[in-house]
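Example (one chain per record):
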Amino acid sequence: MNLDGLRPWGGLAGGSPESADVVVAGIPYDGSAVYRKGAALAPQRIRSLSAAMPPVTEDGRLLTGLQVADLGDLDAGPDIETGWSKVADQLARVPPNALLTVLGGDHCTAISTLSAQVKRHPDVVVLWVDAHPDLCEYSRGGRWTCGCALRRAIDVSGLDPQRVIIAGGRDYDPEELEFIAASGMLLVSTQELARDLTRSAEKIAARLAGHKVHVSFDIDVLDPAFAPGTEIPSAGGVSTRQALDLVRMATESATLVGFDIVEVSPPFDSGDITTFAALKMIFEVWGMSWNAGRHVQAASSETDRGHGKR
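Predicted structure:
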């Protein structure tokens, strides 16, 4: 792809982490993938192709003025079990007013991301958008494989399971369903989303309203027709359109404080459509956060002006 003359992140990058609206970091790790590796290559590919993205949301709102700082890639080492905490500490230093955006990597990179978010925002609520809950105690040969990603993140971060909502689930191990029922998690399956997306999003929104929210987005929530480049393609998924609408409607009354996108695997992609689906999600989430922030500022200014007239 010819990207001559184009700058990463739609030309929005260049801010400092201390003052940026968005702070990006990559975690090029796929050591927890047990089926097909390749997600470690995703941060570089996503960054490279981000130059092709215009700084405009799909509803025509300009992102010019949005300041993006890219920290580059953070090294989790050869094993996430021993490397997650170092990465979490680095992410936790990102100023809390910035929207943290993390590029995986397999979904075990979210162990670091969510641990950092709990430090940055102790009251954070997590929307886990994934075909798989990743709640096994032990899966496919270990406790730190991708089937255990959310379970380990809860364990090491101290995140209350009741502050986690899972959306898009359709492939489960029996123990995951037991854990969800016992812990009071909300699970909204792909089947529910397909049957009535608006009603499903409203159910999630009711849990998220008024809270600071981090969205952890596994690209395999999308049907393989829209995202073939992933470790475990799962048939019967949502479309990219449905995913965009879900995240937008579910977080409308919440405050977005972070977004991570994982399990993009460039070696198994077709014409980079999976990477571009990931980039579409990233830029639209930035737009949701940016426009919501500007709306709040505008409302505050109107209130201040009103007070000045009295």
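Caption: Confidence is low (pLDDT under 50) at residues 295-310.
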